[in-house]
Structure formats: C-alpha cells, structure tokens
C-alpha cells in the first residue's frame, strides 16, 4: 500500500498515468534497470560480507549470509556469476601433513563408522583432536609451537570446549575433556577420536568410563573417519591461521580464542538452517523444552 501511494504521488507530479509507469516497468528497458540496481546492491553487500569475514567466504556462504540478512532467496548461480566476474574469491586451504603412527596402550573400535548423519541429538556424539600452530618467538628468535585440543559436537557443529598449551601431552586432552564435562555434566556422548597416544592412554580411558561415555576411534591412517573434526581444523587454519604471521604466544592464543568464538556465534552454516552453531544449538534446546512441556500438559 505504501509503495502504491509513492508511485501514485510520483505519477501525479510528472503528469503520468500509473498504467504507463507499470508498462515501462514491464518493458525490457525498465526491467533491465531494476535488475541492474538490484545487482549493484547485491555486489556491494557481497563485498561487505566478504571483508567482514576476512575474505574467507566463497559464493555459497556469501549467498547464505546475504539471503539470511535480507530475507531473500537468490540462487547460488547468481552469486557464483558475480563472484567470478568481480573476483570475489575465498581463501584456498592447504593440505594437512601426513599422520604419524604411535604405540597405543588401549584401542577401541570405529563405532561411529563415518555415520555423520544429521538426525542425531545434540551431545550424542563428540569428536576431538589436537592440532599444532606455530608463532615466532622474539626471545628465541625462532618459531615455537602451540597445541590446540578441541571437542566438536556432531549435531550442532559447535566447539564444546577447547584448550591451548605449550605441550602436546595427556594433560592437554584431559583438561579439555574436563572443560566439556563441566559445561554439559549430564551429557553421555559417544566420544570419537583418532589413535593419538593421548586417546589410547589408560588415563583417558578411565576418564571416559567414569563419565559413562562410549569410546570410538578412527582406523589407522584414516583421517576421514574423523572427517568433521578435520574439517573444522581446515576452517580454522584457512580462515585465520594461514592469513597472518604471529609474533608472540599471546597473539596466537588470542587469535585462536577469537576465531572459535566467531565460529560458534557468528559464522553461519548452510546445513544448520543458515544459523551459527550456537544459535542452532539454542534453537534445538528450545524445541526440546517445548516438546517436554507438551508431554507434561498431555
């Protein structure tokens, strides 16, 4: 109604019939002008979103973000064409180094068996792994390493807990595990990892048994068995770590913490209804609460 009033007012000013305006709008010249303005707006927003997300979004994520922000349903093809025409590209990922074997104390079957399906509940499967990142030490005038342990929820795809340390040892993963337990004390997930020595230790198995969790492990040398966790490492490194040079432990630690917060709370994912993981988890929790109330009332 507001738009019609505006058109009517403009037509009155220029002594035109409204039918003439709509006839022009339906013409090739009018439609082309409208589409050109629409495309210019989309392109401007694509560049803004691309810059806000540190040039890490490809055309699909740009489309998801734009459509979510503006309530539109433009196709991926349109964003693909604009991204390639105006060279709005995402960062290319680097390959992960090869896995190195270790001698295990305890092993477990690959119970998860690559069943990364979406019909599971939150906190029903947790994945975990440790990765290393380097920074330059002014004290030693050389590079040093930080180790990051993280726990990933298969359903909500958020980082449940993460721990950073100078040493890749049992204390790193045990601390990370306790953080996750403290956050969700009632959770009894299947706990899946690779066969790194921390996860095959008796101390770690004892923690799992005490928590009532089932242990699952990837097969030897098959990193795809822990695919979603590996995928998160790829996101973290391509969208943050590889884009910068870190000159101190504190700088790298802050960057890791900031990115995980961004990933959980702001980075939309298409397979999570275009929501960030934390918002998607909240939505699931609200649905479960409503269902529980419905059963009580019934």
What would you say this structure looks like, in words?
With 298 residues, this protein is of the alpha/beta class. It has two domains: 2-85, no CATH class; 125-289, Ribonuclease H-like superfamily/Ribonuclease H (Nucleotidyltransferase, domain 5). 48% of the residues lie in helices and 13% in strands. The chain has helices at residues 2-13, 18-26, 28-52, 59-70, 76-85, 170-183, 202-211, 227-239, 249-265, 277-297; strands at residues 125-137, 142-153, 159-165, 190-193, 214-217. It has a five-stranded mixed sheet, sandwiched between helices. Helix 3 packs across helix 4 (59-70), helix 4 crosses helix 5 (76-85) and helix 6 (170-183) packs parallel to helix 7 (202-211). 25% of the residues are buried.
Give a quick precis of the structure:
The chain has helices spanning 2-13, 18-26, 28-52, 59-70, 76-85, 170-183, 202-211, 227-239, 249-265, 277-297; strands at 125-137, 142-153, 159-165, 190-193, 214-217. It has 298 residues and is α/β, with parallel strands linked by helices. The model has no long low-confidence stretch (mean pLDDT 87).
Work out the radius of gyration: 25 Å
N-to-C CA distance: 44 Å
Choose one word for the global shape. globular
The proportion of residues in beta strands is: 5-15%
CATH homologous superfamily classification of the largest domain: Ribonuclease H-like superfamily/Ribonuclease H
């Amino acid at each position: 109604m507001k738009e019609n009033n505006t058109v009517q007012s403009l037509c009155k000013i220029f002594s035109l019939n409204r039918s003439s305006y709509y006839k022009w709008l339906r013409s090739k010249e009018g439609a082309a002008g409208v589409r050109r303005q629409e495309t210019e707006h989309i392109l401007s927003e694509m560049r803004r979103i691309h810059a806000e997300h540190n040039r890490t979004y490809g055309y699909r994520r740009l489309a998801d973000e734009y459509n979510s922000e503006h309530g539109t349903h433009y196709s991926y093809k349109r964003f693909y064409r604009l991204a390639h025409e105006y060279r709005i590209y995402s960062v290319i990922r680097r390959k992960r180094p090869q896995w190195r074997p270790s001698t295990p104390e305890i092993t477990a079957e690959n119970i998860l068996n690559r069943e990364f399906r979406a019909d599971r509940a939150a906190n029903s499967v947790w994945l975990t792994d440790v990765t290393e990142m380097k920074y330059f030490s002014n004290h030693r005038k050389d590079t040093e390493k930080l180790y990051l342990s993280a726990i990933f929820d298969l359903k909500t795809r958020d980082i449940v807990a993460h721990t950073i340390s100078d040493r890749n040892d049992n204390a790193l993963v045990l601390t990370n595990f306790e953080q996750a337990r403290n956050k969700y004390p009632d959770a009894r997930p299947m706990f899946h990892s690779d066969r790194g020595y921390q996860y095959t230790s008796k101390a770690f198995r004892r923690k799992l048994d005490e928590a009532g969790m089932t242990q699952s492990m990837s097969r030897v040398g098959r990193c795809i068995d822990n695919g979603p966790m590996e995928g998160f490492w790829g996101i973290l490194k391509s969208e943050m770590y590889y884009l910068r040079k870190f000159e101190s432990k504190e700088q790298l630690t802050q960057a890791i913490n900031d990115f995980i917060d961004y990933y959980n709370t702001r980075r939309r994912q298409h397979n999570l209804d275009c929501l960030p993981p934390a918002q998607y988890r909240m939505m699931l929790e609200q649905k479960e609460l409503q269902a529980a109330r419905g059963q009580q009332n019934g």
